[in-house]
Amino acid sequence: MNLPDTVRSYLDQRQLPYRTMACPSGETLGQVATRLDLPLRRMVRIVLLKDSSGLVMAILPGSHILDFSMLCQALRRDLAPLYGAETIRFFQNRGCKAGSYPPLHEAFGIPALADDGLILADEDEIYFDGGSGDTLIGMRNVDFRSLLGRARWEHFAVPVDDLDSLLSQQAITPQNLTSLTNRYTPAGLREGIEAITELPVMPQTVQQILMLRAHLTTNAQDILRIVEQDPSLAAQVVYWARSPLHGHPVAVDSLQTAIEQVLGVDNTLNLLLGSSMSQTFRIPADGPVGLKAFWRHSIYCASLVSELAKLLPESVDVKPELAYLCGLLHDFGYLVLGHVFPARFFLFNRFLAVNRHVPVSAIERYVLGTEHWHIGAWLMHSWSMPEEVIAAVRWHHHEDCTQPHAAYSNLVLIANRLLHYIGIGDEESSRLPALAMFTLGIGHDQAMAALTQVQASMQALDTLSEALQLPSEG
User: Fold this and answer.
1) Where are the CATH 1.10.3210.10 domain residues in the chain?
2) Would you say residue 183 has pLDDT above 90?
3) Residue 309 backbone dihedrals phi, psi, to 5 degrees
4) Rounded Cα gap, residues 115 and 156, in angstroms
5) Could you please report the per-residue DSSP string of 372-403?
6) Is the four-CA dihedral 324, 327, 332, 335 of positive or negative sign?
7) Helix, strand or coil for residue 450?
């Protein structure tokens, strides 16, 4: 638990008592609080903000959401948050681990605004990120307030519980959604999809995997050359292969065994592609469309699509391994939106959690400014993904799709409708689409039998989805 030099020297200089606690790396503040049995109310989080005058660090309780209307009114500045790579670079350039953000504004030489929700009893312990990625710092509240002596204290955040109560009681109309979204979203990011000026660059690993998928002669040795360069990917491949889902009779003790004897080349490439792509995006783990729910739904959908593909007559031209990939990636737009618009994505998850009766598409349009299939298809096209995948991402909510490669989007649509029966995914109906079923030649009883097959493997599928959530090292 070695603290970054910037953090350690600053704390030593201030000569205030503190203790360090080991915490899991790669987890959200909420996950760390749960794992260590600490009140989220006493966990400190930060948001870096900027305008033409420079940077400001907003410091608030982990249990609160930042209210941009209150913040901008307090400072009389039109501040917008730094997102993704900008925030990571700021702290990395000052010696911190990627994704680790200590709330020590003076140590980093920027002004701060602290929310009065952090004012607790003097002896109450408060906890914050130590900057090393695996260390939490605990100190008395009175000492923490002393660290923030030069910060400006204001009220600019509200407890999530209060927000949930408001969302539960207020009628959900387009006007109300827009009003609430504007309150918790920085003004410069209210234009919706037009605010996304560019998408993240495709990672090199993804490029390599796509090149392998394009070659019919790709074998296990080709995959090994990529995977062996990245220990985290290598560990994931072995982990996937050891899943009971594959029923391998003997221990999987090597990458080659995992690829050649258990997963197969196509399945390995698909899982590596999904995992490597998702590492580009940072979104919360929890929530109805957080990373946990995203991968669970994606894995179930991909598995069910595979079962449905087995039922297709020879006249339907569908490649099984490509159908699996379509199921795996069809909701990727959520990752993009969560990465680019974290404040709105947090709010979107809160809306969904307390308004299950409202169509997801309606909340998407008014809170996020677009729907996930729109931005997802844009990403897939930008990253030169197969046309079949782009079609599945773009059309998987459309019942009457007759576009090129509609067979793939129809398979995903049917799979999502079936998953509604077991409470997985964002489809609002379990009614199987008649036209899609007819054009694919799948009967109702066959579809339900495919769902039963997937249900029989739920424990193994859950294990696989958890493996895909593992963070990349480095």
Assistant:
1) 281-468
2) no
3) -60, -30
4) 6
5) HHHHHHHHHHHTT--HHHHHHHHHTT-TT--S
6) negative
7) helix
Alpha-carbon radius of gyration of the chain: 24
Specify the domain boundaries for CATH 3.90.960.10 within the chain: 5-158
Task: Tell me which CATH code domain 5-158 carries.
Answer: 3.90.960.10
Residue-wise pLDDT tens digits, 120-161 = 999 999 999 999 989 999 999 999 999 998 999 999 888 888
Please give the pLDDT value at position 474: 35
Find, among 211, 185, 204, 163, the residue nearest to 69 by Cα: 185
Average pLDDT value for residue range 395-419: 93
Q: Give the alpha-carbon dihedral of 376, 321, 272, 379, to 10 degrees.
A: -20
User: Cα separation of 189 and 378, whole Å?
Assistant: 19
Query: Which fold, 281-468?
Result: Hypothetical protein af1432 (1.10.3210)
Six token digits for residue 138: 């605990």
217, 441 contact by CB (below 8 A): no
